[in-house]
Amino acid sequence: MNKLRFQAIQDAVIRLPKPFHNDQIKSSLFGSHVFTKKLMRRFLTKQAFTEVDEAIEKGTKINRNIADHVAASMKDWAMSMGATHYTHWFQPLTGATAEKHDAFFDFDSNGDSLEYFGGSQLVQQEPDASSFPSGGIRNTFEARGYTAWDPSSPAFIYGTTLCVPTIFVSYTGEALDNKTPLLRALNAVDDAATQVAKYFDKNVTHVQATLGWEQEYFLIDKALASSRPDIMLTGRTLVGHPPPKGQQLDDHYFGSIPSRAINFMRELEYESMLLGIPVKTRHNEVAPNQFELAPIFEEANLAVDHNALLMDIMGKVASKHHFKVLLHEKPFSGINGSGKHNNWSLSTNTGVNLLSPGKTPMSNLQFLTFFITTIKAVQNYESLVRSSVASAGNDHRLGANEAPPAIVSIFIGSQLSSVLENLEHVSKGKLSPKEKTDLKLNVVGKIPEILLDNTDRNRTSPFAFTGNKFEFRAVGSNQNCAIPMTVLNTIVAKQLIAFKNEVDVLIKSKKLKKDDAIFNVLREYVKTTKNILFDGDGYSQSWEKEAKRRGLSNLRKTPEALSVRMNKDVIDLFDSVNVMNAVEQKARYEIQLEQYVQTIEIESLVLENLVNNQILPTAFKYQSMLIENVKGLKEIYGDDFSKYAPVAMNSIEKISGLTEKLATACAALAKERTKANSMSKFDDSAQMYAKNVLPLFDKIRECVDGIELIVDDSAWPLAKYRELLFLR
Ligand code: ADP
Ligand code: MG
Question: Ligand 1 in contact with 375 (CB < 6 A)?
Answer without folding.
Answer: no
